[in-house]
Amino acid sequence: MENPKFKYQPRVLASSDVDIRYKGTSGGVISQIIKYLFEYNKINSALSMKYSGIKLFDPILIYTYEDYENTGSVYHEINIYKYLKENIENIKSPILITCLPCQVLPIRRLLDKNNIDSTIISLFCSNQLEKEATYYFLKKNNIDIDEVIDFRYRGNGWPSGMQIKTIKNQYFFNNNTSKWADVFHSQIFTLNRCFSCKDTFGINADLSVGDPWLYRYTKYDNIGSSIVITHNDRGENLIKNMYANGTLLLIENLASNDVLLSQKKTLIKKHIFRKYRKTLSFLRKIINSRYYKKYFFYFCKVHNYMLLIFIRILKKIEGIK
Ligand SMILES: Cc1cc2nc3c(=O)[nH]c(=O)nc-3n(C[C@H](O)[C@H](O)[C@H](O)COP(=O)(O)OP(=O)(O)OC[C@H]3O[C@@H](n4cnc5c(N)ncnc54)[C@H](O)[C@@H]3O)c2cc1C
Ligand code: SF4
């Protein structure tokens, strides 16, 4: 199972700006970093996301904090490498990039090759979804995507959930306890590469940020805080400077074991998926059939319960507690 050794002290941090913290996915730390780096002229461009209707979220290069959109986490595949490569001429060095662990190294290589100075923040990552997951979910809830005027998967409190505004209605689906959560965790719409993923924390980035899935936060924090792990001097100095000048609040220093504990379910799941890849790819062929998907929405709780049992049996075989 993944057991990375963290070089620097892991921390739980939050933006000291109440609005940024509330709007952010967890503690608004990444949005605050982007604001700080622009305000102190330490970057000349950054990667942001923009809701674009039927296409859902698109990456976009920004050159000032005023152009930044605090969209929160985006739960569908975005080919950031391709976007950066196609827009390499428009990047103004230094740049701030956010991406998933599996995207860090190719992006770093691309930027280095083009002499672009970068700070790369990785999000922790359990799995990413095909866009089809969102289309499927909206359709099953009779929400016409052409009528959606505002959409986000996370943010506005913690852990919050999917928020949709249409011309006529507003919808909310909790991140952990709704049918959206069932679709997310079903693994039916998970990208192929996630079934052999070995990196949850983005250890090749300058720093990584995730949700504090620990009892003391899930029970008492409804505004949001972020776990932050720095991997080199660039990341560590950035974070130290920010909480020295008051833009980030230090909630607590975290033991490495607590970082692992906060992602325990993901670490076990990924270990089992890697180890039993052949069995899983056979099962995935069945569940990826058109007929299974057609009715899945109505029995997704049963599907997820069976997945849970499957993982529990394999956990027992593997001797994992
Ligand atoms: C697919 C996915 C899976 C995740 N899985 C986990 C997990 O298992 N455990 C965990 O603890 N945390 C996970 N996270 C990270 C978590 O959801 C938060 O993004 C993280 O805690 C940062 O929160 P924040 O409030 O500090 O950042 P915010 O201030 O909300 O800023 C988030 C930044 O990330 C950027 N961003 C959002 N989505 C993407 C994306 N798909 N690709 C590139 N950039 C993006 C936004 O543009 C924004 O700048 C996941 C995120 C994603 C997108
Ligand atoms: S689970 Fe791994 S492979 Fe899948 S998107 Fe996340 S980092 Fe990439």
Major beta sheet summary = 8 strands, mixed
> What structural class should be given to the helix and strand makeup?
alpha/beta
Backbone shape: globular
What strand line-up does the widest sheet have? 3-2-4-5-9-10-1-11
Order of helices and strands: EHHEEHEHEHEEEHEHEHEHHHHH
Characteristic key phrases:
single chain, 8-stranded mixed β-sheet, 3-stranded antiparallel β-sheet, globular, binds flavin-adenine dinucleotide, binds iron/sulfur cluster
Report on this model:
This protein is an alpha/beta fold. It has one domain (11-318). Helices cover 39% and strands 19% of the residues. It has 13 helices and eleven strands. The strands form two sheets. An eight-stranded mixed beta sheet has the order 3-2-4-5-9-10-1-11, sandwiched between helices. The longest helix has 19 residues, at 300-318. The model has no long low-confidence stretch (mean pLDDT 96). Iron/sulfur cluster is lined by residues 100-102, 125, 127-128, 191, 193-194, 197, 199. Flavin-adenine dinucleotide binds next to helix 2, strand 2, strand 4 and strand 9.
